[in-house]
Amino acid sequence: MRIITAAIAAGLVSCTLGAFASTPDLPSCDAYWPAATCNYTASSRPSAYPISYIVIHKAEGSATSAASWFQNCAAACSAHFSFSNTSGYCYQSVLEKNIAWHAGNWWYNCRSVGIEHGGYTANNDTATVCYNESAIETKSCIIYYTVTWDRTHIKGHSEVPGATHTDPGVYWNWTYYMSKCNPNPVTPQTYVVDNTSGGFSCSSNWATGTSASDKYGTSYRWRSTAAVSDVAQWTANLANSGSFKISAWWSQGSNRSPAAPYILPNGNTVHKNQQTNGGSWQTLTSAINLSSGNRTTKLSCWAATGYVVIADAIKYYGPQ
Q: Which helix (H) or strand (E) holds 305?
């Protein structure tokens, strides 16, 4: 896209443009496997039609098989790009100026770029690298064609009016994908909530400790383990939505719980051995999608009895 259009803008001779005939519009794309001419409509977009939408697909197979199928006239369909769901490897099948047959709606076909992804709608099988590589193309369309960065203009195949397909399915991570398509990405921020911070709270059953040399700050809270629902919690007011890393800090000791239950903002529980790795940040999750606003991580005392759990500090980092 950028290469060919830049050549036109510079008024280069046609033989120079011909040198780019087999080059993907997206510079980071790995291979150009042109679809059969019987599977798309030649056009001169965006002058013929504005490119205003991105349509996201899942192939119900591999990206390689999809790109190969588009070269067969029996397919009667095509997409502009296909990305491997495991490696992010990119195939371009149709130039962006042409109309791929992918949306099941001619009006949308004329005004969209179709991006296929390997994998299956029923499976949570899209690797982070696939989201990242696909988002490069979507972001380039946002910048180059002024596609609006929102879920009205970047949509799943199932969301196209009249569509009978269900892809990309419930496992497609829209929060992460849209964050990677952001044309004005925010700088990740670090939010640390100590047990002395305003965002920390616990019941009076949690005692205050100061003797551990590997504590964060001046103190920490502790409680004996018991089969009761009594949590300490850390709340951070996140300025932006996206993927966050959450880490915990505790002071270690032989009387600490070997399975301290941290409850993440999404409700999932992560167990950590507080007998080791004290005095440093320990990852609870490397990537969790969170909306902006107040988000809370909790530490429960409900673990095997005979120990204590240490509530010291929590760190949120993101969006990543």
A: none
The model's pTM: 0.60
Where along the chain do its domains lie? 2-180, 189-318
> Quick one: fold of 2-180?
Lysozyme-like (3.40.80)
At residue 249, does pLDDT exceed 70?
yes
**Helical spans, DSSP H, in the chain:** 2-9, 14-18, 63-69, 106-110, 128-144, 174-180
Phi, psi (degrees; rounded to nearest 5) at 26: -85, 115
> What pLDDT is recorded for position 187?
87
With CA atoms as reference, report the closest residue to 130 among 51, 59, 24: 59
Is CATH 1.10.357.10 correct for 189-318?
no
What pLDDT does residue 37 have?
A: 97
pLDDT band at 179 (very low <50, low <70, confident <90, very high): confident
Which pairs from 275-278 meet CB under 8 Å and 24+ separation? 276/252, 277/252, 278/212, 278/214, 278/250, 278/251, 278/252, 278/253
Report DSSP letters for 217-271, one per residue: TT-EEEEE--SS--EEEEEEEESS-EEEEEEEE----TTB-TTEEEE-TTS-EEE
